[in-house]
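In line with agreed milestones, the collection of sequences with tokenised folds has grown. One record among many is set out beneath this paragraph:
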Amino acid sequence: MKRWKIGVLACACVLCLSVVLTGCNSSTYEPQLKDQTVSSSALGKSGTLRVGVNASSAPLAGQTSSSSRIVGIDVDVAAYLADQLGAKLEIVDVGNDPVSALSGGNVDVVLGVDSSENEADYWRSNVYLSTGVALFAKNANAEVPAVDSKPKIAAQASSRSSWRVTNLFGDGSLVTQSDLKSAFAAMDSNSAQYVAADAVIGTYVAHSNGYQASILALLQTPSGYCAAVPKSNTELQSAISSAMATLVDGGVMDIIEEKWLGSIIDLDDMPVVKAPTSRNTEGEDGEQAEGESGSEGADASQGADGASADGTGAPATGASATEAAGNSATDAPTAPVGGVIS
């Protein structure tokens, strides 16, 4: 009887070992956390990096249609930051109010902050994703239209992009559309020659819906998205700054961009269309003054899933963004029209 029990126990041990060895293929596998590189006093919740995102700003962040998880570029960036800090990750939807989220202590860092904003209430990192109002064409070798050539340019109604079109090319050039998907459909059907849209959002919508589109030029000086941290938390500022540098310089950001956008956005050498000196323009600050009327939303039905957190506020382990970027494309973040300032 005793020998029988020993034999059963041995078989059970072998079975358990096989489960451990094959566990890497299980959907419940979680990578081992690195040693924490910041003190617990630098985090609002011990061992956890709480990252704020705007869940109505696809492709930066949006809720999946199937499970309402928050996924997107900023979620993958957040996963990388948490991994570098050796912390668990908690994603928090803070909407478009990073100041309140940071000052209220609800999060440690906020992603997706516009680098062009003149906000003095928080520290900002270097840009991790460049953007700006861009001019798209079907043919990558198309010529950039002259401002007096009266080109037909589709743009979402009441968006910052439509404002730039009328400001640069005149009212007659604007082909108003209800959303960005319709704008790219208009270009695809030759109802318009070009599309004006935020470089990141436009690339995402075109790629997600199968439209051929390339950025020819910018209609404004490029800006970008950065991370925000409370001014008083200098230790976390240093850690985030270092992690962001590794994210960009190490090529991880390129992987994340290709995952969500289908390509890497490089605006460094992109020409910028300028208005004639005789035309009265408000400049970049005038665009910001549009407020909510200057919004532009991603309305995409396809994309990639790759959430590193469940988006409900529950902690998740800080898996590296390179791992997150390897997930299969099964679900997409969706956002209402007007959900993203562009």
Remarks:
- The mean pLDDT is 79.
- The radius of gyration is 23 Å.
- The chain has ten helices and 15 strands.
